[in-house]
Amino acid sequence: MEAQFLIAGFGGQGVLLIGQLLAKAAMHDGMNVSWMPSYGPEMRGGEANCAVVVSDEPIGSPLVTEPPIAVIMNKPSMLKFTPSMEKGGLMLYNSSLIDIEPDREDITAVAIDCNGIAEKLGNARTANMVMLGAIIQRTGVISIDSAMEALKATFGPKKEHLLPINRAAMEAGAEAAK
Amino acid sequence: MGQKMLMKGNEAIAEAAIQAGCRFFFGYPITPQNQIPEYMSKRLPKVEGGCFLQAESEVAAINMVYGAAGAGARVMTSSSSPGISLKQEGISYIVGAELPCVIVNMVRGGPGLGSIQPAQSDYYQSTRGGGHGDYRMLVLAPSSVQEAVELTQKAFDLADKYRNPVLIMGDGLIGQMMEPVEMPEYVKPELPEKTWAATGWKPGCGRDRAIINSLYIDPNVLEQHNRKLFAKYAVMEQEECRWQEEMTDDADYVIVAYGTTARIARSAMRKLRENGIKVGLIRPITLWPFPNAPIQKAAEHAKAFLTVEMSMGQMVDDVRLAVNGKKPVEFYGRTGGIVPTVREIVEQIENMAKEAK
Q: A117 in contact with B at a CB cutoff of 8 Å?
């Protein structure tokens, strides 16, 4: 089993965190994982993306050049990565900020109203966790419980009070992706 | 072994160094290795005897390394290609003075300021000395974050054992990537006491004055000194060669690749084996000394070799020297910060197999 993800958006949307939680949770589930960020002269509002590979075998390339699974959080990323997607791939995209659909017939595209759902839950900053819930629902690579364990370890005791709202966001995202 | 953690290559190397007793770090920022000094700046002041210092330049940093090494400390610096070029004068002095230290190069595209993306185009610089004069450094090339941790700790031991700098040659990808790491418990091997260290001499302190020097005005003395250095390098060639071989026994085609490129080559090898082409992989772990032995062995039965690098072709020279004309040695490389893909390597080997028919 090998799952390759490309997660892209703009800086500040938490796309790197989505990838890290995915990798951390899968690691705790006993899988081999790699997480590779795009790096460059980056800034808030600039482009950000990361590649995550989860496998039961040792991981070769940590780069994902033809993503079988693309997680797209903003419109420039949709335009940039749609052409390189693998045939038959799965794209989860944030329809709150993207007013177009991917122009590919040979992929499955799932629209998730990440920001809308997060705002309804009362914390706009959990839009990335809504998307993580959708990823979990559609791919089954990790469970919400293991993602929560990873988030707990990332947050530490200071932010523990934010765990319930993040869980609610993941669950709402999973529901939206059904 | 401790608990599994998800760590960036750069951070893992920094922590591994501290675990191995590194207490001095001198550096200057440059992408893609910045997490090493960043981590050191947070951690070292909290470690007993730890000192982190951001120097005013790479040249200053390597000379601070020279000083700390001369005093017998475990000391490290890190940089990326253009910064490593700036350190070469100091490295040459450190080799000449026979002092141990660890240098990390997270290689990026060159020449000049180049790009900040991963590359392997500093192979010549790393394995042929780099600075002026006749010298060698042990060069270790990790291909995973876990291996980067293990080789960093080993680097300090090897540096002390040979009184010579050890270079860890990674690339932007090894530095920036996160992978699971188990931080091994560092066990220091038995090493000779640093009786040569300049730690402050007083009359009657029981040893000669420690003199740290790389200047030998008398050519006869310098020649003798260089012969002594090369006798040391001969021992390194005998004892420190490291490599990994995979599926070479029955291989018709053998890929030689190191670091990041070896990971991609391994995926290509698996795909090619599924398609019925017998491919093996030789991954040099030490770039100097270069592992000639497994390549010579494979040259007995393989049809051809393919060297894959993130450069226009540097290590391929060493592969050709090892193969010594017995079999064809092809090359495939991407440069400028571009990482080769599995598909590209698969196509290369498929073409070689077609031509052979």
A: no
- Confidence at A39, pLDDT banded by 50, 70, 90: confident
Q: What is the ipTM of this complex?
A: 0.94
Q: Which two tokens stand for residue B31?
A: 């992408």
CB contact under 8 A, B6 and A63: no
Asked whether B282 and B269 are in contact (CB, 8 A), the reply is: no
Distance linking the first and last C-alpha atoms of chain A: 23
- The residue-averaged pLDDT of B123-150 equals 97
User: Six-digit token pair at B226?
Assistant: 């260089």
Superfamily of domain A2-176: Pyruvate-ferredoxin oxidoreductase, PFOR, domain III (3.40.920.10)
What is the least distance, in Å, from the CA of A36 to any CA of chain B? 5
Kindly determine whether residue A24 and residue B6, on different chains, have CB atoms separated by under 8 Å.
Answer: yes
Q: What is the DSSP string of A16-39?
A: HHHHHHHHHHHHHTT-EEEEEE--
Distance CA B141, CA B111 (A): 21
pLDDT tens-digit series, residues B1-42: 468 999 999 999 999 999 999 999 999 999 999 999 999 999
User: Closest Cα of chain B to A130: distance in Å?
Assistant: 23
pLDDT digits (tens, 9 = 90+) for B141-187: 999 999 999 999 999 999 999 999 999 999 999 999 999 999 999 99
Listed by start position, the domains of chain A span 2-176
Residue B205: what pLDDT? 87
For domain B4-186+227-239, give the CATH number: 3.40.50.970
B245-356 shares the fold of B4-186+227-239: yes
Distance set, CA B54 to CA B13, B100, B297 (Å): 18, 20, 47
